[in-house]
Amino acid sequence: MSMSKEKKAYNRTIKIEDEEIPSIKSRLLQINSKQNLEDIINKTIYQPLEEIVNFLPEECIDLLFIDPPYNLSKKYGNTKFNEMNNNEYEKWFEGWFVKLIPLLKEEASVYVCCDWRNSSAVFNVLQSYLNIQNRITWEREKGRGALHNWKNNSEDIWFCTKSKKYYFDVESVKLKRKVIAPYKIDNEPKDWEETEDGKFRITFPSNLWTDISIPFWSMPENTDHPTQKPEKLLAKIILASSKENDVVLDPFVGSGTTSVVAKKLNRNFIGIEQEEKYCIYTEKRLLIAETDKTIQGYFNGVFWERNSLHDQKKEKMKLHETFRLDLKE
Ligand SMILES: C[S@@+](CC[C@H](N)C(=O)[O-])C[C@H]1O[C@@H](n2cnc3c(N)ncnc32)[C@H](O)[C@@H]1O
Q1: Per the domain annotation, does 15 fall within a domain?
Q2: Which residues have a Cβ under 8 Å from the Cβ of 89 and sit 6 or more positions away?
Q3: Number of domains present in the structure of the chain
Q4: 319: pLDDT strictly greater than 80
Q5: Does residue 91 sit within a domain?
Q6: Counting CB atoms within 10 angstroms of each CB, which of 9, 178, 232, 308 has the fewest?
Q7: Which residues have any ligand 1 atom within 6 Å of their CB?
Q8: Is the pLDDT assigned to residue 329 strictly greater than 50?
Q9: Is residue 325 very low, low, confident or very high in pLDDT (cuts 50, 70, 90)?
């Protein structure tokens, strides 16, 4: 199975050489009986969720992140997910979702990704089992234009908790924004600071996220997975809703974003994925994360606005180092 395609010099999409595949595959886990947490922690389980969910240990998960197939006909590797009517999708979702609830610790948080089509079905299930705390909407930045409809440019993430008592660290997810109207009081900046890159204010995060970029070819986190989530998005969720050494579970881990960001932020992780190709991406990214802990758009404990000067400068420096680009370009 060759996973390395010829790519242009600027293209930083993760490449896996054929020679690497056997050793990467040997890191994957397959299970067929009840497991203890120590057996599956910091691993990628290469099996369909439905096949193994009853083998997972109970009450050990601090944060559950779910990015399931949305209700669209779409091919993931060798398997096609077929669009259903809303009621069927709700039943499908609830079928495996109920089996994840016993795995949660009492103070656990749960985040579920959706688009506008499946959001109501997911909400119906979530409200039966959990406390819904909020709905985050994030701007996808890119989206295909439609002649007879509004361009589909946003997604939802339902934020829920198992009980009313839960961990939430707002300080860790503050946003650094450019100041448009730099008010001063007694000639001193009001709530903002002057830096070498301009005037910035540190703000509390809202449930509308406009600072996220979908991974694309010039980003070092990019893979060929068709619906890869950005590391920056996972970083916000993991920082806000888990502590160091907590356990984060992603039952549809795809290219591994959740596991990789958990590792970069010193959390434990468990990823489940039914496609071997995506499990291999996950493990390759985990290997890279052993030495590279950077998360694009998150520096010095704050999240920077999309395309902020600092972000661009840093990226240009990296491109320069890698490809010897002329920095004036
Ligand atoms: C929306 S994608 C998740 C993408 C992921 N968040 C990322 O950043 O790469 C859903 C993933 O679930 C996988 N999947 C679909 N059905 C599954 C099942 N029954 N068990 C395990 N994985 C499944 C698909 O192969 C796909 O990679």
Answers
A1: no
A2: 71, 118, 121
A3: 1
A4: no
A5: yes
A6: 9
A7: 48-50, 67, 69, 76-77, 225, 227-229, 252, 254-255, 257, 272-275, 278
A8: no
A9: very low
